[in-house]
């Protein structure tokens, strides 16, 4: 019996079960690009000159969303989830470490999303510890329900039909209110506090790239790979630009203070709409954590995993303080920037967009792809040398950001190792 689309684990999705069109992906990735966390990240750009921050928002959103869509295209080309797309380059056993790191970061992000929603709702309704507990458990229960329902039902019947358009309208009203409030003229005239264009670019591009380990878990259900690519690229780029721009105008990174700043400008129910939409981010995280787990251990029921991860994240959201938690998550997520530099180089350049099922599931699947792992390590090291949030940051180095250089280095290092192997193989043949 063929499973329903909501129950697919890591097997390739058959063509008749690929139900999403381009507009579905536009709605999905627009929705996942929405969030108070993006407002918060955008507020850091107020330390840069206005022109630098605007260029960083536009270029970073376009480049980051392009990389996100390229990663998703591997999934929609072959009907496979993200962790399986790593096997041809990293090998089956080699993909287990990225899978474990992905599970850890996704539990972390789910926890952080629950924290954001509950703290924001507290700020709107009046803060007290009992309300915090009740809201946290209610949010956990809601995301669990969404998770076990499955991506097909939620995206087709919820996000695409009405939710995203309400969110777009609410977001536009919030940003227009910020512009009309007088913040716009102050931001334009502000000289900034020394943040460079490249540092600002690093902050912007980090958001779409943080979704790369998840993208194929959803894009594998596409009816047409090209339309899924366009929908993913446009949907995420537009909302990323909109919310980063709003964050620059607000200039407040603390979540509670950010809520108060928005609430003073617009009606509270518009903010509640954004908070409700934030639940799909938590759903996406916990669903992909379950799929990543299944890439290591096949015979575990996906719905049981979702329930278990949500229970764990809900408990963590209660006991772990929100302060500095975001930095920890960015540090873990940074390993996926150079990792996908390797994956995209392998798929689009080395394999020329041809992955066979045997490369991912069968006899041709290598156990460990050492060239991929070596190139990945090079990229990670460079990221930590260039990133100001890392423990080994070299402050005397020029400020050129960390995301793009580490992505490029891991890609080039992988191509160089593969090319060298091919040359050595050809020389051996001649002798």
User: Span between N and C termini?
Assistant: 53 Å
CATH superfamily: Hydantoin permease
Q: Which architecture per CATH?
A: Orthogonal Bundle
Into which percent range does the helicity of residues fall? Answer: over 70%
Radius of gyration: 21 Å
| Topology, number of strands | 0
> Which CATH class?
Mainly Alpha
Question: What order do the SSEs take from the amino end to the carboxyl end, as H and E?
Answer: HHHHHHHHHHHHHHHHHHHH
Q: Tell me what portion of residues adopts beta-strand conformation.
A: under 5%
Mind explaining what this structure looks like?
- The chain has one domain: Hydantoin permease, CATH 1.10.4160.
- Helices cover 72% and strands 0% of the residues.
- It contains 20 helices and no strands.
- Helix 3 packs parallel to helix 9 (197-209).
- The model is unreliable at 1-6 (pLDDT under 50).
Question: What is the structure about, briefly put?
Answer:
The protein is built from 20 helices and no strands. By secondary structure, it is an all-alpha fold. Helix 5 runs antiparallel to helix 14, helix 7 runs parallel beside helix 11 and helix 14 crosses helix 15.
